[in-house]
Amino acid sequence: MTQELEKRQKQEVNTTSAEQMVESGRAYSPDVDIYDNDDDLVLAVDLPGVAKGDVQINFDESDTLSIRAKNTFKEPSDPAIRQFNIGDYYRAFSISDEYDKEKVAARL
Questions:
Q1: Is the separation of the CB atoms in 23 and 71 below 8 Å?
Q2: Which of 12, 23, 28, 83 has a CA between 20 and 30 Å from the CA of residue 1?
């Protein structure tokens, strides 16, 4: 029996958001799982190809949390099968002011 692999398309970021990237080129909106417990708001962000030090997280005065990430993956030439696009990442969230901006922390 032959199984077909389902390709999940990455959503490309529109041009106004992509302008906010550090470098020009394609930017994608990464998948995010959000967990809200009594003490924390946790965002688990899927950033394949991103190395430590290549992520910028900003929290501005309008309570917008933005995540920018540079993809440093070097694709081998002539792939036999290609199922994903390579590019940088950008995603932004409006965060309620009930959360303390001074306690934002991240780990990769």
A1: no
A2: 83
